[in-house]
Fold each of these.
Amino acid sequence: MSSVPAVSRAVHPLTDWAESGLVALTGHSEGPPLVPPGRAARLARELTGRIAAATGGRVRLDGARLLAERAAFTGYGRRGAVSAGGSCRLLPTSDGWAAVSCARPDDPLLLGALIEAELPDDPWPPIAAWLSAHTGEELAERAELLGVAAAPVRQPDAPAPTCPDRPPRAVEDLLVVDFSALWAGPLCAHLLGLAGARVVKVETPTRPDGARRGNPGFYRLLHAGHRSVVLDPATPSGREALARLVEAADIVIEASRPRALAGWGLDASAAVAAGTTWISITAAGRSSDRVGFGDDVAAAAGLVAYDERGLPLFCGDAIADPLTGLTAAALALTAPVDGTGVLWDVAMSGVVAGTLDPAAPVGPAQPARRHRDGWVVDTSEGPVPVAIPQRRTPLREAPCSGADTAAVLRELGVSQR
């Protein structure tokens, strides 16, 4: 593990941003790096401080640097109004701005339904034209109805609630069943695994984790040392195995709308009543049908940097994902007040909004300036070098999809049919 202290080393708030690697990912590609608004980097360090304390120092990481870690593997850079990964764009609506993602294989079809037109190979010009003639509210309503990851950019109007301060609990040897995919949920599972939990990743034959198609080094980092099972909820034996896994679990992580697992016959309320900690990660909370990913959720929640012309730009790389994963892990490492189960409704949009000051004026972001061969951020306590994204080295291999299905089912006493 890293030797970074459990608490923030920063004195000036801008230091957290400069050291995180996120400043290097924010701004126009041809312009200087920009400092994002709010305190997301500081909050990330506070969360890893809580995680270090809860694990007795076993897990000591720098939360600020985790926020930019994927870019250290992929080589992503700042791209202005296009997300670092290229799948999300900030586009003007008739009354403001919106963040629209086109990342999944079926997104072109869904976006075509949203604008009621067949999309060409380059979908962005017709999408931009439709947005310019419609309001952000119209976009939000249609996007939620169709399951499109898109939303208007809005500034938070009230402070979001913070993580509750509850006593920590040890998770060593506890069973974590991870139904999540991509980054936020797997980061939570990764941190619990570092704390000694036994993590079982669950996928289905038709919906493997999309991150398997991404950078292999980053995937390995998040899933090293875990076990992988593939179960088919369309079959009676698959549904039985899923139910047994949830019954055995101490902690369940899901990152889909509640109806998804409910459709598999899994009941979060029943599991919580039986003593399970259930981590539910969604774009906007369990009561919302909104779909969202790290880039569009963060921008829609107001975490954008404005350039000198007043144009919004993406901050970092899908920052809502790692920030939510850290929050979820900190919650999972707490003990319910009465010792029973608990359902944590972790809304990515709420996590991001909690890092922003609703009273802060909206204006151009502070740019970094050139210094020798790099960049620095000027603070009242002196210049701070702008760090590039940094990576950790996976210590073990990640399992192939379904590699542990038979062994896990044997342990649960479930026969394969």
Amino acid sequence: MIRRATIFAVLLLLAAAPAARAQTHFSTNAPIVNFRLPTFTPDGHREWLVRGSEARFANQDQVDINELTLSIFRGDDSDKVETMILAPNARVMPSESVVTGENTIRVINDEFEVTGVNWSYEHKQKRVTVAQKVHVTFRAELKDYLK
């Protein structure tokens, strides 16, 4: 009796499946809310973490993000964040490990803070380029600077 009930339930689910699929809609334009994209070193340590309040996939290798928070890790056992990048909007190219933005950026590190406009971050070179309205604040002690 249990077997018949199980077979009947499976047949009922299979019959309902096409109707459920007909109502399901997928769209590449739909935003992903609370987006997170981590990357890892070959050893399995965190390398960087891209987060945003909303993300849209423009194509296979381009993600447009609102309210970007990019955490760049040391890539070792410490799992310590080395640098943070904040921006209202950004474009991430994961396969190239590049992030760009036309609006403002704020780069925060233990030694300095940078703000500006029209920027890019190349992770392989660990290089941030800020083209306009650049403001740098050093937190590190500058010894013998005036000598």
Amino acid sequence: MSAESIRFKLNGRFVSSTGEEIADEERTVSLADRKAPLVFEPLDPDNGNFELFHVVIGMKFHWEREETQRFKGKLKLFVENGLITAVNILPIEDYLLSVISSEMSATSSVELLKAHAVISRSWLLAQIQKSRDVARHVSEYKTFIPNEEGYIKWYDREDHTHFDVCADDHCQRYQGITKVSSKQVYEALKATAGEVITCNNAVCDARFYKCCGGITETFENVWEPVHHPYLTKVIDNDVVPEGYNTDLTKEENARKWILSNPPAYCNTHDKEVLSQVLNDYDQETQDFYRWEVKLTQAEIKDLLFRKAGIDVGDVLDLIPVERGVSGRLIRLKIVGTTGTIVIGKELEIRKALSESHLYSSAFIVETRLIASLQSPPTEFILKGAGWGHGVGLCQIGAAIMGANGYSCQDILTHYFPNAELRKIY
């Protein structure tokens, strides 16, 4: 959390890095107050906690809002980029207790919560290692690659330098002990303590998201061009749906897939299961498997300029250049009256065409004309599939698997082929 001032409340007895002892007190720290970092540590870690007010969650997504959140562990405040930044310092297992209650509902099935505990622990440890690797080779790590057609950009770990992971959807949701409310969460963590998934003796970079749309994506099509054998194409069903060619890198196959309703674990409207896997604000999103967005000519021009700095005049067409194995667009050509540009990867496309983010980059484009075929389209209709980047575990699909009696091991094996479960501490 970063802001010009941060209001917080210490519940219980704390000691600050200046030696001051504080008990049950509310404070506000602003830029004018701080030069050096300030740390508040609970004297009784099991019972002491602190609250942060006006925490923004779902930042730049369609469910963005503010919450008051409560945390265990230490509170660190420091100045960064002209703002006060608040960081929570705590043990890994306490962090995971929150994550699996924040990413999922605390009332989810135990097998699903166990699977999520394993992948969230794996992801965290992999990110800490990756940060160390990036720091050692900082001059070699690039996430923006310009070319003659346009550019390729992806978003990952490079954004965080003074802490391991952020608390929002950019990394994985961490909302303190605010939503930890069920014995299933504690059971899931206890049952999987120290367990991760590994491949070739390394902890897996285990990614996850809300809904794959029927087929999962490969890592290299979303982030840096590195192949991970456990983050590959998975059909989210126990059988291949009949009547479809699932090579969605081909435009005609992707179009048929996206415009239809193939069976998949994540193709569900089961309100009971969805209420278990989705937190309250996530349940506001009902059309996650197949969705539609309409943009007028004025809206698309404005979005492209504000969100991506792109000005090609009136937009004439949006042309798929390259699709991944799930049908998600990796590169998109934007043709206008004054220029043409090709952009990617998937999140850059989603950001450029939405006030928040498109649900996914697995979409096809239909245009609408009013005057004549020579005029720029007056409206663009994006018809899409899935919610999120599509790499790794599909949370809604995994929830259905858990509800249908599949075990934690079954879920992990389905979404992470070529990975093995291993206890490392």
